[in-house]
Amino acid sequence: MMRAMTRGFGFCVALGLFGCGQSASDENVGREAQLLTAPTQVNTFALLASGHVKLGDRTTLTGGHVGVAPGSGDSVTEGFSAQIAVGSATLGQRIVLKDRAVAGDLFATTVVPGTGVSYSSLSPYAAPPAQPVIAAFSAGTTPLTVNAPTTLAAGNFGQVTVNSTLTLSGGTYQFQNLTFGTNAVLQASAASVVRVAGKVSGANANFVRIGPTGTQPAANFRLIVAGANDTTGGITLGTDARVTALVVSRASVTMGDRFNGKGAIAASNVTGGNDTSFTFQTGFECSADAGCDDGNACTADSCLDAKCVHTARPNGTSCTSDSNECTNDVCSAGACMHPSVADGSSCPDDGDTCTADACASGVCAHPGNGTCPVLPPIPPRALPRAPSQVGCYWYTLNGWEAIPCEPVQDVITGVGVPAIPPAISSPYVEQTPNPTTSRNKVLVADSTTPRPFVFAQAEIMFPAIDSVTDAVPSPPDPFPGCASSGSPTPNALSVQLNTNKFLMANGDNGAIQFAIQSTGLNDSAIHMCAWQVDATTQSYDATSVCVKAPPPTRDTPLHAFDFVNIAGSVDPTAGTMSIVVQLSWVEPGSPNIYAQTGVDKYGLANHWVEFDAAVLGLGNCTQAQFTNASAVTRMMGSTCTSVTSPTSSTAGCPAGPLEPNAKFENRTATAETNNLAQVGAPSVSYPNPYLAVTNVTQSTSGACIDPKHVYVRDYTSDSGAVPSNAAGQAFWESPDIFLVPKDSPVNADSTPAQSLITPDTDFDVWVRVHNDLGCAQVTGAKALVYIADPGALSMPWATLTNNDYSAGTATGTVQAGGKTLLGPFHYHSPSTGFGDGHKCLIAAIKADGEDPVSNFFDAPNSNQVAQRNVQFENCAFPLTNATGTDGQVEIALNVVPPETAPSLSTLPNISVTFDDDDSSWYNTWVNQPENGSTYLATRVGNKTVVRLGKPSVTLHTVTLANGASRTAVGNLELPQGTSLTTLALNAALRNPSTGVLLAPANGGSCEMAGPPIIQ
Whole-angstrom Cα distance, residue 879 to residue 453? Predict the structure, then answer.
């Protein structure tokens, strides 16, 4: 807000004192100090002076600030009716405003106002920034007089007199003195700097013009005048002068009436005549070297002619380190460069004794040094056989369930297809025996007819990973149809199990790609296809179908121990081909195993003599680019239809087993790639004569990259991925926690069998830890062991290891690819007071260099935690609510294997009896629509019996009050010859209003086999 000053001549406004020669009784006129912050950037000032600024009547200064250094006398004087720096600031210790003068924000100690003045605000004086420094230079001696239009190239001259038009062609000009005649013009057709060692004269010359031509800004003409005082230096121009320039003068700058200027002026004193008009434009870039630091260690930064200049330092000068031991940090052409040091130079030790630490192409590489162990061949985790009927499926606790198939064209349209193996010039025929020149490796000795595969499986797991991105490689693959450009896609990849090429019935080459394609782990578009490829025509069978994983998929990227498991099979008799896929990135409780069975259209049967597997780019020849990652690929292949796991029976298999001649080739049959390098050389093992197994470890460095920790399993096929119960698996029967009578022998290959506890007895607890995916040993493995008392729904815990991690008598060292036992940890069972008899053992583990888990009761969501439920009475499941609030229980009952189908009228009779004094649970379940078909609820005394009619039953939720406890007791009555059958109970306690879990879901199980058949 502007405020008019209306006092008479001679009065003043003072901040903190009375001035203007007035006594303390004189009235002070003006606004109170508003304590604004004064401008400090030199590039915002239109006028800068070390002595004073005097501007004549009716002067207008637009834009930019005015600043005068501390000193005595009048710092700034505004003439009558002048308008100075309105909307900007004026800094001067003593500011004189003549009648009707208008100003913006004032920063002053004393203001002397005339009649009718106005300004925006008044704050205490603050010094303006320093004026630009004038560097030393040497002018020439050759005089130059311009009496006719002349164009002048850059150079040094003595006295220069301009009586006509002098055009500068650009660059730096150094004059001894510069004198103007009337109507003289000094103009620049390109950016120019004019340095004058003495003075610029033109007091008696009117209508002088100085500045760049056309629409060039004032910054393109810099006038630097070095004369030390007003006798030997400074600038004087007559009336009607026009200057467009950035002007710096050691002495004064004086302009006559009607001066018109653009740019900025810095001088000892600045004086303008009446009717001056000056417009701020650009401003000075700097005032000293310190204001020109560009942050580049390879330039010398200086302020020259009020402009920052960055001169390249000599090549080879040291510069800012990039913190890479494998590069030098030196200047080159003004830039800090980081050329590679000599390959083989030492670099920081990665702490892995299995690697060398040496620079390679500017990167600290850690290649294997020949001592890294190779993982022993371990089979992929078992997958259920695909249904024989053509269709698409997902796997539930009740077995395969049909789901809609996805047309393969939708996959092609949505995410593209895996790259087709490059065609060959003539049809490819497998010869028997395979010649030594064959691209396919022999499966048996050359003297024997190759026996084709009928089954292959590959599980790829990531023990360590930071990230993965799908991108077009540089340079792109030249194969026709490959993408040549495209934006990288985070978290996208494909995993493929590929066959060899084979001769199709039409004479073309065929190939099969059992593949999963994931367009992002937070996207539901996960496609699983058995791609049938005509490699000769470079086409895919567009009539086949795929399986699409429905949501919800996990919304986080890959993390350590994520995996994809793919099995492909062919049925020569039925003429079908199947793919089964298991993946880890689904939400807990959602299916994570899928299958598709289709027609073997191209005739893979009897031609399948090789397979390989890899994680690759998503499609169209892209690359899966990993960072700090390792991948373990477990591959397995069989030549017998009934042999799909190490435990399969070989009865009925044909003569001519696969052992000992299988060889695996770790390559891919597509143009997609990844940036992983193999660690060590894999070997082949034979769990039975028809099944060959191998493991391949790869990493981004070609050396061992491990998560540096061991893990415990929640169930037999758990290999560390979390959550472990993604498909609803029971996690409370860990095979890695052993409860045995004291001093009983236990080894690392044992299977836990003890689940019943004898009262008042001494037991040993052992914990098995795994490093079977690691390629370096782990040390310092320890366990923290607890036992719960009681509870399926809430767990008060008692420690068996003194609330600390312990290895027991073990060393805690786990070799690469191995496992070991920790313990024993002593447990003495109570003779009384064991409640309903249900106990839960929890083991949390850690190793050297690894933090302990934050929640050591959450087995599904940590590969450092395992749980095993035990009990004093077989098949008794106490359900206790100790959460502090009433809750509702959801109970699921499951029979495994589902082939042991319970019956409501005959055997198998499988049931669960619940405490139910008030009949509340019975009243809920008997009115459930499924009662009488899926299950049958009856009353026996004060208990409710639920008999199962199907392998999977979920009961309606029932109330369990705070502090209440009910026991469920299972019963299995089986026909003769029934295989080992498990009855599992899973209970979840939820808030009745919100549905949120009040305690971790839990449960128990018991198992039984039918009586033997008497011959």
Answer: 50
Say if residue 876 is exposed, middle or buried (CB neighbours under 10 Å; 0-12, 13-18, 19+). Answer: middle
| DSSP-based three-state secondary structure for 798 | strand
Bridge partners of 634, per DSSP, are 459, 695
As beta bridge partners, residue 304 has 307
Task: Name the nearest CA neighbour of 365 among 348, 385, 384.
Answer: 348
Q: How far apart are the first and last CA of the chain?
A: 111
CA distance linking residue 288 with residue 301, whole number of Å? 10
Q: Which two tokens stand for residue 409?
A: 């064209």
Residues 6 or more apart from 841 whose CB is under 8 A from it? 737, 739, 765, 785, 786, 787, 788, 867, 868, 869, 870
Angle at 308 between CA 306 and CA 313, to 5 degrees: 140
Residues of the chain with pLDDT > 70, as a percent, come to: 87
Give 177's pLDDT tier (boundaries 50, 70, 90). Answer: very high
pLDDT digits (tens, 9 = 90+) for 953-987: 999 999 998 878 788 888 999 999 888 888 888 88
The mean pLDDT value for 788-814 works out to 76
CA dihedral (409, 412, 418, 422) in degrees, to 10, reads 80
Round to whole Å and give the CA distance between 828 and 825: 10
Provide the residue count of the chain. Answer: 1015
State the DSSP code for 791: -
Average pLDDT over residues 196-220: 94
- Yes or no: say if 217 and 235 are a contact pair by the CB < 8 Å rule: no
Phi-psi domain of 258 (left: phi exceeds 0; alpha: psi -120 through 50; beta: other): left
Q: Is the dihedral of CA 494, 498, 501, 506 positive or negative?
A: negative
Residue 235 near residue 249, CB atoms below 8 Å: yes
C-beta neighbour count of 27 within 10 angstroms: 7
CA 217, 219, 223, 225 torsion-angle sign:
positive
d(C-alpha 323, C-alpha 336), whole Å: 13
Maximum alpha-carbon separation in the chain: 137
The pair phi, psi for residue 412, each rounded to 5°, is: -60, -40
- Half-sphere exposure of 303 toward its Cβ, with a 13 Å CA cutoff? 20
Question: What phi and psi, each to the nearest 5 degrees, are found at residue 925?
Answer: -75, -30
The strands making up 838-846's β-sheet, listed across from edge to edge, are 797-799, 782-788, 838-846, 865-871
Beta carbons of 75 and 92 less than 8 angstroms apart? yes
Under DSSP, the state recorded for 329 is -
Query: What's the confidence (pLDDT) of residue 853?
Result: 87
3-state secondary structure of 290: helix
Q: Which helix (H) or strand (E) holds 408?
A: helix 408-414
114 φ, ψ (degrees, to nearest 5): -85, -165
- DSSP states of 412-428 as a string? HHHT--PPPPPP-SS--
CA nearest to 909, candidates 846, 821, 972, 996: 972
Q: Helix or strand or coil: residue 921?
A: helix
Among 736, 775, 706, CA closest to 864:
736
> What are 17-45's pLDDT values in tens digits?
323 333 222 333 334 444 799 999 999 99
List the structure tokens of 835: 């409640």
pLDDT at residue number 839: 80
Q: What is the pLDDT of residues 576-626, one digit of tens each?
A: 999 999 988 877 667 889 999 999 999 999 888 888 889 999 888 899 999
Contact indicator for 234, 217 with CB cutoff of 8 Å: no
The four Cα atoms 614, 618, 621, 624 give a dihedral, to 10 degrees, of: -60
List the alpha helices (DSSP H) in 854-957. Answer: 920-926
Three state DSSP letters for 717-752: CCCCCCCCCCCCCCCCECCCEEEEECCCCCCCCCCC
Strands 260-272 and 45-55: parallel
Phi, psi of 44 (to 5 degrees): -110, 0
Strand 782-788 relative to strand 363-365, pairing:
unpaired
pTM comes to 0.53
CB atoms within 10 A of CB 973: 13
